[in-house]
Sequence to fold (278 residues):
Amino acid sequence: MYSSTPDDWREANRARWDERVPIHTAGDYYDLDAFRAGKDALRDFEIAEVGDVTGRTLLHLQCHIGLDTLSWARHGAAQVVGLDFSEAAVEAADVLARSLGLPPERAVFVTSDVYDAAQAVPDSAYDIVYTGLGALNWLPDVARWAEVAASLVAPGGFLYLAEFHPLTDCLDDATGSTIAYDYFSRDPWVDDTPGTYADFDAATVHNRSVEWQHPVGEVVSALAAAGLRIDFLHEHDATLFARYPALARGADGYYRFPDDRPRIPMMYSVKASRPVSG
Fold:
């Protein structure tokens, strides 16, 4: 925990997410009707890099309303467990799971702070521990996260992380072409912007948020220090939203810089395994 971390960081963030759950479940961004009809919430590179999940158990840390979690169940996972600190999000995920006809033992959702995950989930270890995009920035201590996440990986299993690349938060907002912010900053970002990425114009009351930037090296080193073997670190030249005005949406749905602009990594993914023995 950094000395400048506000004492109310967890409570402020939880109130913010609790308020946004009904906005997310009702809006077009997550489009729950399309999801119920079979739309996959996972990104193509995640599916390819994680590989076949048939018959495996999967724990999704910081699952929000569960679309990614339930997508892994659709891809054949024997059991998925989603964990989030927002009780409202967990309730919404559970309702969604039941609407898909998944029995409670196949799709389990629990409310817990991610740092307390080992005490909250139904089993001591999982074949796959998954963390999706936009999760680590809400945590002040990535080393502690890595220790908890690694402890939940079964021997022979692996952790898979997909995240937005922290380099994108260092470039100027107007053009994305110059370094404007410190890549190695450990200071929290405290913001009070209303609305949500799913609906910028939504009327909201709980707008205070506290976030952190975690350099890629810090994340990978934390996973290695927690006893996992790094299988790969992949950097991707695309992102999911128009982070800068110059980005254009391609036919594959990802946003990239035009061909006349140098490329930078805007997302990254890591796979880290726990050996069967040793």
Remarks:
- The longest helix spans residues 9-26.
- Residues 134 and 163 are 6 Å apart (CA to CA).
- The mean pLDDT is 96.
- Helices lie at 9-26, 32-36, 44-50, 67-74, 87-99, 117-120, 142-151, 216-225.
